[in-house]
Structures are given as structure tokens and as C-alpha cells.
Amino acid sequence: MFFAVNRNCITFASLLHLYKDCIMTVEDILHQHNLKSTGCRKLILSELLESRTALAESEMKVSYPGLFDRVTFYRTLKTLEDAGAIHKIVLQDNTTKYAISRHLGHEQDIHSHFHCGKCDEVFCLQNKIRLDIELPQGFVRHNISMVVEGLCAACN
Questions:
Q1: Do residues 113 and 53 make contact, with C-beta atoms less than 8 angstroms apart?
Q2: Which residue of 12, 26, 32, 99 has the smallest Cβ count within 10 Å?
Q3: Residue 44 CA: distances (Å) to CA of 60, 73, 80, 109
């Protein structure tokens, strides 16, 4: 079964995957990444799932200040990031924000972000960018980060 969307054809299975991605729960994410369910992991993931933009550590803690000590919170962020459940975005001013990793793409795909210089919001961009970068012999790529700076629609 096919559905036409902007002259592109997508399968029912693709739509089902998109639907499941949209309704993913905290427990689904923990299970998908083989992580135990802890209070701190659940708090971080629920805050990120509820937000339409990436969040800084301080923004995640607003609802529950002082609930978890700083070390526990940062270790949990690191565990979630290492497992691939979340990803971090480092801005030009070295501010770090986090977002749910909704798509597991090919290693050559670059997940890009948009940072609004006025409201300071960071949005995950859904488009994929492919770069063919040849590294010198012996070099190993670990990560590529792309942040587009500008004004979001609300601030423009």
C-alpha cells in the first residue's frame, strides 16, 4: 500500500515507523537502548520528549530543582548519550543542549540543528545532509556537528 506525499511515494511501513516515532514513550526509549529505568533517566527523557526544542541541563531541571545531585545528573546525561538515546548540541558560545535521538541514520548522514540567535532555541532539522569527506590516512572520524545560526520563524 502506498501513500502519495508531495510527489514522493512512501510505504505504509514508513508511515507506521514515523507514527511509532511520534508516540514513543520514555520506557520505549529505555528499552530500545537496553537501559535500566531509573528516576533520573526517566526525568531527563520525559523533559526532552515534552519539549519541541533541545534543552540545556538547567532547562531540564526547572521542574524538579535539587531532585538529583549534579554528579548523578551528568552521569545520566553521559549514559543516555553513549547509548544513543539522546544527542548533544554544542553551540558557538559552548552552551550544550540535548535532544532525543529520534532517527538512527547511516553513519555518513549528518543530523543538523538550527539555533535562533534571538530566543536561543535549538531545533533538530529533519533533513539529512551527506558529506563525502576524505580524511588523511590514519585519521578516524568520530562525529560531525552542524549548527545553522539565524532567526527562527517566531523571531524573524
A1: no
A2: 12
A3: 7, 9, 9, 26
At residue 45, does pLDDT exceed 90?
yes
- Residue with cell string 520563524: 153
Spatial separation of the C-alpha atoms in residues 25 and 60, rounded to whole Å: 17
How wide is the angle at C-alpha 54 spanned by C-alphas 53 and 57, nearest 5°? 135
CB of 104 closer than 8 Å to CB of 139? no
Collapsed DSSP state (helix, strand, coil) of residue 12: helix
**Contact (Cβ atoms closer than 8 angstroms) between residue 95 and residue 56:** yes
Whole-angstrom distance, CA of residue 47 vs CA of residue 61: 9
Strand-pairing partners, residue 123, are 114
What is the per-residue pLDDT across 107-145, written as a single tens digit (0 to 9) for each?
445 678 899 999 999 988 877 677 778 899 999 987 777
Looking up cell 537496553, which residue turns up? 34
Nearest Cα residue to 86 out of 29, 142, 147, 125: 29
Nearest Cα to Cα of residue 114 among 101, 132, 97, 133: 97
- Bridge partners for 70 per DSSP: none
